[in-house]
Amino acid sequence: MNKDIVSLEGMEFYAFHGFYEEEREKGNDFIVDVHVTTDFTRAAESDEIDGTVNYETIYSITKEEMTIPNKLLERVAQRILERLFNSFKSASTIEISVAKKNPPVGGKVNHSKITIVRTR
What we know:
- The chain is an alpha+beta fold.
- The protein is 32% helix and 34% strand.
- It has four helices and four strands, in the order E-H-E-H-H-H-E-E.
- The chain has a four-stranded antiparallel β-sheet with strand order 1-2-3-4.
- Helix 3 packs antiparallel against helix 4.
């Protein structure tokens, strides 16, 4: 199988994720990157979108899931991943990174970030 990758990087959302109640009330800025490994040989040959992973769908799913508050970024990424696997039967591997800007760690930090990679 070919290992072609469709990516959306730097998706920005204001959302209400965080372990602390104050984070879930106040909200924060988040950045999400998604990489979907598939085989888009058919799309490359036919010039038709049905042979690849539609990045508009990636964005739509990510945006919807980011509106649902969670304590952990790991849970947010897992929910996005599950929906993407359900939407894209041709996806063999999905990698998702979720970063929280200015996390509450008691000092200056640009962002905290988790990355989840799953293969089916």
